[in-house]
Amino acid sequence: MNVTIDESWKSQLSPEFQKDYFTELTDFVRSEYRQHTCYPKGQDIFSAFDHCHFDATKVVILGQDPYHGPGQANGLCFSVMEGIAHPPSLVNIFREIETDLGVPYPKSGNLQRWADQGVLLLNATLTVRAHEAGSHQKKGWEQFTDAVIKRLSQERKGLIFLLWGGFAKKKASLIDSEKHHILTSGHPSPLSANRGYWFGNKHFSKTNELLLQRNLVPINW
């Protein structure tokens, strides 16, 4: 695994690349990709960073694991490749945007259009073995992505963190809430959404209101 990550992030995260855990993680990921089918494609592992540079980040959405089905994962949390059926969580995200902002339900589930506007779509674990959810957890990725969150918290001001579900909410402890905005809700998965913990959170309109308060361009969701 060659760390070909955008220069704006490389300068911020270079200490992580020198640590023992990252060397071990690199060895593990290389071995997995050689022996098994894994997602996303190697070139897309750091896609979230390539499409949303450090200084351009305005919003952070945290996911847990890449999708593990064929052709789904593209390196951005909750996002799928062009032409791929929308997974249930993404369907519920689009439905909430529809009711919150009156934006029509989109054909494409590729969220690169958000990333290019300053939304960091960060999974806690950046790789997964095909058809084995969580198979690359606890191998070092979480330590790396926690460092990403801490770095953003320390070096930036006024970011908006959207923490959906119990796993993401635990990351609030890494964020300076005096400097940043933290919006929390249930997860958009059907299990949580159908219990009333997701729909109606209005996170998309709230995010844009907060951006406008800082004279920043709102996100075209």
What's the quick description here?
This is Uracil-DNA glycosylase. The protein is α/β, with parallel strands linked by helices.
Low-confidence stretches are none
Query: What's the CATH superfamily, by name?
Result: Uracil-DNA glycosylase-like domain
What is the average of the pLDDT values?
96
Return the CATH class: Alpha Beta
The fraction of residues in strands falls at: 5-15%
- Head-to-tail CA distance between termini: 32 Å
What is the fold-level CATH name, i.e. the topology? Uracil-DNA Glycosylase, subunit E
Structural class: alpha/beta
Domains counted in the coordinates: how many? 1
Per DSSP E runs of 2 or more residues, the count of β-strands stands at: 6
Name the quaternary structure. single chain
What order do the strands of the largest sheet run in, or round the barrel if closed? 3-2-5-6
Strand count, sense and barrel status of the largest sheet are: 4 strands, parallel
What is the H/E string?
Answer: HHEHEHHEEHEHEHH
Alpha-carbon Rg, integer:
17 Å
If classified by CATH, what would the architecture be? 3-Layer(aba) Sandwich
| General form | globular
Fraction of residues in H or I helices: 25-40%
